Amino acid sequence: MATLAPISSLLLLLLLSSAVPAPASGFGTALDRSLMGVDLGKEKLSHLRFYWHDVVSGPKPTSVPVVPPPSNASATAFGFVNMIDNPLTLLPDIGSELVGRAQGLYSSASQEEVALLMIMNFAFVSGKYNGSGITVLGRNPVFHKVREMPVIAGTGLFRFARGYAQASTHTVDLKTHDAVVEYNVYVLHY
Q1: 94-145 tens-digit pLDDT
Q2: Rounded to 5 degrees, what are φ and ψ at 157?
Q3: What pLDDT does 74 receive?
Q4: Which of the two residues, 9 and 180, has the higher pLDDT score?
Q5: How many other CB atoms are found less than 10 A from the CB of residue 130?
Q6: Region for residue 5 given its phi and psi (left: phi exceeds 0; alpha: psi -120 to 50; beta: otherwise)
Q7: How does DSSP assign 69-104, residue by residue?
Q8: Which side of the chain, N or C, has fewer Cβ within a 10 Å radius?
Q9: Alpha-carbon distance 138 to 120, whole Å?
């Protein structure tokens, strides 16, 4: 009798799994938006403004090289990669209120001009957006006055996010190469 229990459980499992219809494609199916808490009439547009601090100098840098440029060293440092955990603050002063962290990486992706490939999550740590995040992935030609990069995703309050981020250099220390960049992010979300 004890040997029938595992067999009975297996048969019950098979019967229950066959009662749930499988997606037509085998791995995906259409969903009712209301099941995900998505109401098309409730989409919001938010504007976020903060300062991104790229600290490459000192005893506790927030941006560190993980791949140096190749030895043939182009004028654009083509090929280098930096990993970042940069503070995002309310004001240009790094000591002002911390609103989040930019976590990800940037790399020199152009041989013609200094243009970075930015791959980062803005992980917010204060206020209404605490625990939520926005993902930015795009090209950043650093010597342009205003650079625009797409917002491709979000988490928490920014689920289903899309939009764009505009970056403007606030200050650069030519001795240390530390930089402060103002970000204006416009994001549609539910």
Answers
A1: 999 999 999 999 999 999 999 999 999 999 999 999 999 999 999 999 999 9
A2: -65, -10
A3: 83
A4: 180
A5: 13
A6: alpha
A7: PPTT--TT-TT-EEEEEEEEESSSSTTS-EEEEEEE
A8: N
A9: 9
